[in-house]
Amino acid sequence: MLKIALIALTALPLFAGFFPPTVNTSIATISGKNITLRNSLPRNGMSGVVIHNYGSDLKAITSRIVQTSKGHALLTDNDVILHDNLPTINTAIARGDKVIGGYLYDNVMVLAPDANTYAKATSSANKTWIHPDLYALYLSQEGEGIPTRENLAEFSKKYQVGLIYIIRKSSAVLLDPISGKIVGQKGVSGNPSKAKFPFFMRFDKIDSGWFSKSATGTYYNLMETL
Fold first, then answer.
1. Range of the domain at 192
2. Looking at residues 78-93, what average pLDDT do you find?
3. What's 78's DSSP letter?
């Protein structure tokens, strides 16, 4: 009985806590777009990048993966580096390639109902916090008025955001914007009844232009859709 308890306590740090850790592993087998990892990522839905070693100290990120079940992942796409002046990398993944699961997970953006709630969230952990003002400017440039999983994914690729910390009415969740999956969740209380729509930012509103998508609703209802 004591042995079982010790095993449980030993395994706990892998899954305890709100933020999943960044981990290193490698590709064990490949079958089309399905791969197995030598070591599982802590949570299903976590995304990661594949790094190929070309030799002579030359390495490059070649692909993205998403863990679908313990130790099993799906190859997603190759648009790891978004830059018009850089060539697309066409290197096929290979057995033994390094995988960084939870790539850029220390870069986090918070979607909060007000300034006080935002400040509490960003003071709760030692992360690189990406201010939602930058996201608001991005939405304005794209002609969109509200967050969606699609524009969060594109924004995150462009600005190297690893996680979206979404504060809902009675919970907080971590969205991996690349996989579109929730990889962390916890209960919260004391959130304000009145919330800024579509989210806290230091602008009065998102000016999304003549042909913008509709931006109506309430903050808490919107956050439940993400």
1. 107-224
2. 63
3. S
